[in-house]
Amino acid sequence: MVNEVDVTIRGYIGHDPTLMQGEGKVPYLRLNVGSTPRIRDREGHWSDGATQWFAVKFFGEFAVNVARSIRRGDAVVARGRLEHEEYVSRDGEDRWSATIIANAFGPDLRHAEANVRRSSWAAEVAQQAAERAQHNVPDVSGMEEVPENWDTRTDQAESGTGDAEGADDPQHDGADPGVLASTDEPASEESLVERVSA
């Protein structure tokens, strides 16, 4: 676009990337890149100049690729549109910072090596969506877990749908009426033989 200022900087990443990605929102990444110029004095000696920090912003798949590829201290080259962002400091002072909306970014191969591979982020997102649709995963976000001490007989008796007589009988546990419910007193060996023979 007309009157836009494109800049290219070389520098080092000041911190590990933290990708911001809310549900239904475009992924977003902001990095601080420090650039330190080398200055030669009149005697021919080289020294480091003052480090300048730039905020570099990335959006969408670009942000995901960068977050997966770089770490703190990596030497990088960034190119993009230069903008000035105004903000208020904690002391209440009006300040501004130089921000680059990146359109190209990568490692500085003067100081590093890199193995380039094609991005797979878009393919991964599509595959995950297809797997969810194929398995027809139900949405259980609105359901509640049934407590362990929940008693179906009590619930049926209160609603009038269960067998009230069976619910009041301590020997009836909802199983087959021909099978006696267990009691605290252990059965004798003779009684067990009589039940089997019957």
Comma- or semicolon-separated keywords:
5-stranded mixed β-barrel, extended, alpha+beta
What's a quick, concise take on this entry?
With 198 residues, the protein is of the alpha+beta class.
Topology:
Layout: E1 6-13, E2 28-35, E3 38-40, E4 46-48, E5 52-59, H1 61-69, E6 75-88, E7 94-107, H2 121-135, H3 152-159, H4 164-168, H5 189-197
Parallel strand pairs: 5-7
Antiparallel strand pairs: 1-2, 1-6, 2-5, 3-4, 6-7
**How many H/I helical runs?**
5
**Strand order, largest beta sheet:** 1-2-5-7-6
The tally of strands reads: 7
Radius of gyration: 35 Å
| SSE pattern, N- to C-terminal | EEEEEHEEHHHH
Tell me the major beta sheet.
5 strands, mixed, barrel
Strand content: 25-35%
Oligomeric state of this protein: single chain
Distance between the termini: 97 Å
Round the mean pLDDT to the nearest integer and report it. 75
Low-confidence stretches: 174-184
Give me the secondary-structure category. alpha+beta
Q: Overall 3D geometry?
A: extended
Name the helicity range.
Answer: 10-25%
